[in-house]
Amino acid sequence: MSEPLYTTVATSTGDGRSGGRAVTDDGLLDVTLAIPRAMGGPGGATNPEQLFAAGWSSCFHSALKLVAAQRKVPVVDSAVVAEVSVTPTPEGSFGLSAVLNVEFGGGIHQDVAEEITEAAHSVCPYSVATRGNIPVVLVTTVA
Prior knowledge:
- The chain is of the alpha+beta class.
- The chain is built from 3 helices and 6 strands.
- The protein has helices spanning 48-70, 110-123, 125-130; strands at 10-13, 21-24, 30-32, 79-88, 94-104, 136-142.
- A hairpin with a 7-residue loop joins strand 1 and strand 2 (21-24).
- Helix 1 packs across helix 2 (110-123).
- It is globular.
- It starts with 9 loop residues before the first strand and ends with a strand.
C-alpha cells in the first residue's frame, strides 16, 4: 500500500450516535450526535450518516471537477447531492445504501455528463471504498 497523502483523526466519545460527541484532532469539527427522529431518536443534532453524506458529496464533486478538467470539458453550476440511507439487513443488523445525484449546468450533453459521472465514481475515494459493499445508484441530470 502507498504512503498516505493525508490522514485525519476523529474521536467519538459519550454514547456514540446517541448523544455522544465527535471531534477531529485539529478541532475544526466538533459535533454533538443524536439519533434522528426518523429512527426513533430525539433528533436535534447531526448523525454519522449526515457526516458521511457531506464527506462523500464533497469528495465526489472534487473528483467530478478533476475528471472534467482532465477531459477539457467545462463544467459550470454543478452539484452532487448524496442521499445516504440506513437500511435493515435480513440478519437483523443495519447497512447503508446511497444515491448520488449529480447535477450539471447547461452546455454539456447528457451522455458526456454521464461519462464524467462514471469516471468520477471510479476515482472518488469514498466511491472506491464503498464499491461492492453498499448499493449505490448514480443519477446524472443536465439542466
